Amino acid sequence: MSENLYRDLAWLPRMPPDFDARCRSAAEAGEALGQRVHSLASYALDENALARLAKVIGGAGARGASLAPLVPFRLGIVSNATTHFLVPALIATAARHGMALDCAEADFDQPVQQALAADSAINSFQPAATLVALDYRGLPLRPSPGDSDAASATVAACLRHLDTIREGIHRHSDAICVMQTIPRPPEAIFGDLDFALAGTMRSLIEAINRGLAERLVGSSDILFDVAGLAETVGLAQWHDPKLWNLAKVPFSNTFLPLYAEHACRLLAAMRGRSRRCLVLDLDNTLWGGVIGDDGLDGIVIGQGDATGEAHLELQRTALALRDRGIVLAISSKNNEETARLPFRQHPEMLLREEHIAVFQANWDDKASNIRAIAKELSLGIDSLAFTDDNPVERDLVRRFLPEVAVPELPDDPALFSRTLSAAGYFATTAFSAEDRHRAEFYQTNARRVALQSQCNDIDAYLTSLAMVIHFRPFDDTGRARITQLINKSNQFNLTTRRYTEAEVRAIQADPGCFTLQVRLADAFGDNGMIGVIICRAIEADWEIDTWLMSCRVLGRKVELAVLQEILHHARRRGIHRIIGRYRPTERNAMVADHYLKLGFTALEQSRDGSSSWRLDVAAAPAHATPMEVERSGFASLDTDEVADAR
Amino acid sequence: MEMANIYTALTDIFHDVFGDDTIVVSPDLTADDVVEWDSLSHIRLVLSVEKRFGVRFSASETGKLKNVGELAGLIQTKL
């Protein structure tokens, strides 16, 4: 992913396999065309896919169909090169940014004539903005190596050329000019000396770009730093001499999606559509590890460790964004006190509570939390971007809050910061002193807000995850992982009893013990072993000695499925009652009500917070769970279950 | 690569580039047979072929192609 982050727009979700079919059905659909197009544009589309989507959008325009809620935007384009490929790429990409783009192209290679004529194709179109897409071949660039007087004259002439175009467009239309910097060609004449010597292409283009940037400050026109973009992906990749020779295509079509994305970001920023708030996950996003399980000493953050530095880099980026006025918020599945601990006490943390406007740490779904954050800050949902390492959380937020920008993240945290930056959610066209203090206006010292309502379609969402839960008694293969979970899990752990591998082997062999190792797979892949259960038979009862689960699968009704499984086996063995115990520790407060929520009756509750609970096997109701159940490896007593096993 | 495999891949590329799943890709297919196949979409076609097969063509090679049969032949010499 890293090499092609920019070229492939890797922060966007991959194109679905049925993209073509969805384009066709969108073209035929009468309703919600705007939403469909917007949703199709949200993927990482290559050039051909952009062209296909542009055709759907163009077809709608031709038959007068509404593209609402996409906002109309009229764009003129003047260039010294072929803009034929540019237009469909821009139209489809603009839909990603909530705009229905209508383009007028100036006649090929006539930028000045078109700008100066009142009745030209672009001026009479009355665009909101005109893209002045000149490259180095469209300027009066005459190299004069070693002659600094001639070089100054050339730079002045080129800037005058650009000014003439801008003035013409302003005289004859109300359009804002979007002016491109010039990517220099990679070919050198002297070698390294090209950079030092006045009058080389390299020196001239550098001076022109700087001069252009300076004269645009304070004007109503906008700088589009195409030179910076080309350098980011590599000038030798950017310039394709064959394409120029063949058809005067100004840069490699490989980068058309990237170019269009950057152009449309600017247009969206002109319309005030850039993001204002960054919502961050904590565990394995802002630091390595899980604070609830690993503790303050166990999480990885800070210098001296490659993973720690990677997460620190993301914090540094977040802080830099805050310094320019982007509001920071937290959404994490954690106990609040635990989640705040690193912000208060970890010496290596760059982010502190004072930097966070809203701090949502609880066990509810993130869509509800993000909605609460937006409400608290009085920002539109479409002003938020959300960064989380967990693909399930990302997918849930995308489904329930499609307006929120959610970047795909690579597995390696070293690339988190770069990916977030490449996504460009916070692009703006100007920066003022007021912006610098905006984050503080929103600040109320990491407050927490109450959740308004839960997402009511969570069940449908969980079903769509296509979860498969697999139960198996302890065995030799699973023992190492079982022992690891028993000794590592802190949060979702009812009794926090630690056992050595030898003890686990003894439990496995003990006929008085009923055990489960629980695995979960879903549409995103295999989560591996996510739960461990040990029940000890006491006469006709089972006492749950150990019930622990990975916090990663919380909120997915896995605990309900595990209870069903325990009951299933209890019935077959003639067990009357299930006894559950909760033993409080510093870290397992989140499961204090575990048995209550599962319908157990309280037997006793002690002053130290521990409690015991009872469920009658015969009276326990059956619950439907949004997952497929598989089991294997159970003893011959369960021969009637062989059919269930895979 | 077998010629049949080249045609299978070319069929996908033609459908993708021209946005038309009804195009039947055969050796004697020419630009005259496909409405959208003009000099500019020809460039998109060539770029898509280069990407799919991991080959590069020069301007003179792609300029003198008369039909799909010649394109397929050119691809095979590069693999």
Descriptive notes:
The complex is a heterodimer of chains A (646) and B (79). With 646 residues, chain A is an alpha/beta fold. Chain A has three domains: 71-270, Rossmann fold, CATH 3.40.50.1110; 277-456, Rossmann fold (3-Layer(aba) Sandwich); 461-644, Aminopeptidase (3-Layer(aba) Sandwich). Chain A contains 25 helices and 17 strands. Chain A has an eight-stranded mixed β-sheet, with helices on both faces. Chain A has a five-stranded parallel β-sheet with strand order 2-1-3-4-5, with helices on both faces. In chain A, strands 8-7-6-9 form a four-stranded parallel β-sheet, with helices on both faces. In chain A, strand 13 (541-549), helix 24 and strand 14 form a beta-alpha-beta unit. In chain A, helix 1 (19-28) packs antiparallel against helix 2 (33-41), helix 3 (47-62) crosses helix 4 and helix 4 (86-96) crosses helix 12 (256-270). The longest helix of chain A is centred in the first third of the chain and has 25 residues, at 148-172. Chain A is elongated. The relative contact order of chain A is 0.07. Chain B has a single domain (3-78), classed as Non-ribosomal Peptide Synthetase Peptidyl Carrier Protein, Chain A (Orthogonal Bundle). With 79 residues, chain B is mainly alpha-helical.
